[in-house]
Amino acid sequence: MIEISRAGVKDHGMVTALLFQYAEEQGLRQGLDRDRWERVLAGLLDSDAWLFLLAADGDGEPVGIAVVNWSLTLFGSSVDGRIVALMVDRSRRREGVGGMLMEELLAASRRRGCREVEVAVNAGDDVEAFYRKFLPDDCRTMLGWYCSD
Fold first, then answer.
1. Would the pTM of this model clear 0.70, i.e. be above it?
2. Which of 28, 59, 64, 113 could serve as 55's disulfide partner, Cβ 3.0–4.6 Å?
């Protein structure tokens, strides 16, 4: 049994561990300052502009996380969301945990009044096929540019 819940400041340790695992899998861990990250994360967990969803197994052990950042747009003061992370523990993949996180993330975004939610993926990555399962037929394609070396 998997339970999805909104993470709060009390879940700081679990969120940090899951996000560091995600960063390592994405090759982003180099140069991460854990102390600085923990200070930033505490503020984000307490912010209304961020949603951290935790997936936990029947024993309360975290098995996945989804993170979305909401921001105001120029279109009638509506809100857009950007998926910043969605990660499931390697041992629990292909069990539907990612789908549950994604469904709850989209439902929370709808409740918030989001105009749209976006995510950046590399074309052809396995994760692209996962996200495509949740797309409406009239989905737009977004282009992205890397701004660092």
1. yes
2. 64
